[in-house]
């Protein structure tokens, strides 16, 4: 018997284990559901491969009633969470959540299925996500290959959102928009960061009392990004990023949860963003009594409904 087949090289439970023979065992985030017409919300979805070479794909959502009209809707580009190593855009919880957001906010949503670590270590997820954003942008002026985006997207009202690792990605896409700009007629109106996966070498707030958990977060970051400079890498610690003040939007909503280990990082992000010379408006919504990504695990609870309505208000009324 080959001993390496059972010997563990990396244990990142409850997410995944890597065995010495290279085998990867993911414990959660492996289930997928098909694109469909959701009878509860009236939202239709479809999958599109953006790059046959890399396999990067998106799931696009639209209220079915919009398809037969000339109506144009805001665009939401969404990045799923999962520590950069689990979950996909096709996971049941993300499919359910995007159906809800699209129904409530009346938007066209593009959910990004970027490649994951460890098979594709960072910064691959960032590069894939930017490729998708540029693909979305290519539909401005009624161009591009996708009819839903070409016919129904209002490119002057584009929003980025994500949770956990996906919120980290959304932040970095905003920075890249600030650095490189967007096509004429395409405007990034706002960014929503839900329980963002930010970190740093020096603890902030309540992190000082969580040495063991801090070590796990440090280890996970080095696992998904082996070439990183560490927990003060600008990819994980916005406070160390000289480009922070060039974020390419004027509105940012940060959502944190009271019991979440990452909560204080969300509050700290607001503080450093306001001091960066950015000049936009940033607000924080804290959900009392809740933990990390509670809104995905228990979408019917009152705090999840309140979080969703806050996002809807930003998209529809521009209110933070």
UniProtKB/TrEMBL annotation:
<dbReference type="InterPro" id="IPR050466">
    <property type="entry name" value="Carboxylest/Gibb_receptor"/>
</dbReference>
<comment type="similarity">
    <text>Belongs to the 'GDXG' lipolytic enzyme family.</text>
</comment>
<feature type="domain" description="Alpha/beta hydrolase fold-3">
    <location>
        <begin position="76"/>
        <end position="295"/>
    </location>
</feature>
<dbReference type="GO" id="GO:0016787">
    <property type="term" value="F:hydrolase activity"/>
</dbReference>
<dbReference type="InterPro" id="IPR013094">
    <property type="entry name" value="AB_hydrolase_3"/>
</dbReference>
<dbReference type="InterPro" id="IPR033140">
    <property type="entry name" value="Lipase_GDXG_put_SER_AS"/>
</dbReference>
<feature type="active site">
    <location>
        <position position="164"/>
    </location>
</feature>
<dbReference type="Pfam" id="PF07859">
    <property type="entry name" value="Abhydrolase_3"/>
</dbReference>
<dbReference type="InterPro" id="IPR029058">
    <property type="entry name" value="AB_hydrolase_fold"/>
</dbReference>
<protein>
    <recommendedName>
        <fullName>Alpha/beta hydrolase fold-3 domain-containing protein</fullName>
    </recommendedName>
</protein>
């Amino acid at each position: 018997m080959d001993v390496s087949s059972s010997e563990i090289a990396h244990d990142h439970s409850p997410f995944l284990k890597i065995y010495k023979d290279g085998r990867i065992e993911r414990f959660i985030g492996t289930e997928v559901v098909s694109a469909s017409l959701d009878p509860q919300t009236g939202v239709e979805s479809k999958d599109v491969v953006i790059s046959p070479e890399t396999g990067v794909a998106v799931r696009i959502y639209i209220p079915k009633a919009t398809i037969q009209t000339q109506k144009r809707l805001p665009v939401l580009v969404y990045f799923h969470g999962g520590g950069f190593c689990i979950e996909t855009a096709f996971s049941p919880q993300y499919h359910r959540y995007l159906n809800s957001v699209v129904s409530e906010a009346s938007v066209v949503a593009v959910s990004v299925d970027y490649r994951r670590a460890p098979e594709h270590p960072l910064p691959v997820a960032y590069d894939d996500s930017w490729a998708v954003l540029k693909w979305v942008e290519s539909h401005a002026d009624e161009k591009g290959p996708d009819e839903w985006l070409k016919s129904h997207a209002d490119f002057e009202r584009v929003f980025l959102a994500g949770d956990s690792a996906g919120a980290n990605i959304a932040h970095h896409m905003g920075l890249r928009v600030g650095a490189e700009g967007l096509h004429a007629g395409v405007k990034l109106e706002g960014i929503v960061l839900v329980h963002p996966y930010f970190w740093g070498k020096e603890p902030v707030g309540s992190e000082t009392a969580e040495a063991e958990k801090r070590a796990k977060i440090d280890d996970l970051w080095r696992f998904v990004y082996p070439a990183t400079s560490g927990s003060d890498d600008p990819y994980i610690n916005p406070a160390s990023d000289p480009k922070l003040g060039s974020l390419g939007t004027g509105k940012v909503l940060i959502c944190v949860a009271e019991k979440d280990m990452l909560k204080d990082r969300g509050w700290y992000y607001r503080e450093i963003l306001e001091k960066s010379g950015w000049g936009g408006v940033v607000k924080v919504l804290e959900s009392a009594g809740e933990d990390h990504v509670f809104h995905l695990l228990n979408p019917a609870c009152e705090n999840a409904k309140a979080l969703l309505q806050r996002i809807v208000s930003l998209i529809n009324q521009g209110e933070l």
